[in-house]
Amino acid sequence: MKLLWAGSDFLHPATRGGQIRTLEMLRQLHKRHEIHYAALADPDRPEGVARAGEYSSRAFPFAFRPARKTSPRFALEAAAATFSPLPLAAGRWRCAEMRTALERLIREERYDAMVCDFLVTAVNFPRLERAVLFQHNVESVIWQRRRENAGDPLRRLYMRLQERRMRDFEAAACRRAARVVAVSEKDAATIREWFGVPCSYVPTGIDTAYFARPADTAKGQGLVFAGSMDWAPNIDGITWFAEEVLPLIRARNQELPVTIVGRMPPAGIQALAARDRFVHVTGTVPDVRPYLWNASVAMVPLRIGGGTRLKIYEAMAAGIPVVATTIGAEGLDVSDGETIALADTPLDFARCCLDLCGDTAARARLATAAREMVASRYSWEQVAREFEPFLVQAPEAAAGNP
User: What's the structural domain count of the chain?
Assistant: First the structure.
């Protein structure tokens, strides 16, 4: 099958959950199909284009340097978005060159199937009615939760505006697409209910061999969070943990190490290490696995989110137990008390973290059950094979259709 896969960016370094999901699925699909990968390419990240041959037969990069979220340019984009019908999270990725080139590729290459990867890619995808829209999140849910958790009234008003525009944009994209595929049954059900379109899903996968703890690695201590620290739900979650949960932990254990691993932490997150000498904020790291292996418990204190959290399956594959909020574990095949510990209040979250850190047997029991679960059900090869039928089923995706 000759496949056009259009994404929001190139996939190396793969530091975000959606990037990792796409990369691993494409690696599997590339074994059986001819894949043309088209995406925006940040000139500051040349590795992405250089390594595209690992998962595609041909690559089509479109130079695009997004505004940093702390820059004056981003502030101007956010202000201008007030007067745009598009949500800021989508409109800021518009690229006329990419849209024009995709029109030409679709016309000339006569693809057997096409994928629009991530909702934001839809702003540059010209023939969505012939494509599979791959939804890594229900973006409207994320914006709804951001609005609900916004403390400042003006910020809440802005979030409400962006939420409404995102919901309109997402509904239109889902209704235009030939097929919509989500990453959990919960997200698929939300898309069916909110937007009135059929929606299927593929589960999240994991490479358990890659994350397995080496036999000579010493058991670690303390808590670890691993996730992109330039993503708003992660920033909100760690802020909540630091303000509401950590003081309760410190009342019982003043020296429990807490490590926050992830790219581009904002100043407010970096400042946590200055306030507490047992908190370590790493920033970008070349490999997250040593930080997982050197911890006792992985925590996922999210209050905002959608899709599924790869970070949970990564921790499980690494052999450490996970404490998460219900939203943090949303959409994953986990069972409270058997493969994960769920806690939604600061007191319960602190208690779960402390209890597991202090109970070797409980940690081993939870971690063993979780690792066996992900190893037996969620290989990337299986996930890719579950995705393939949707490529065939997408109406008018076959070669030769105008």
Answer: 2
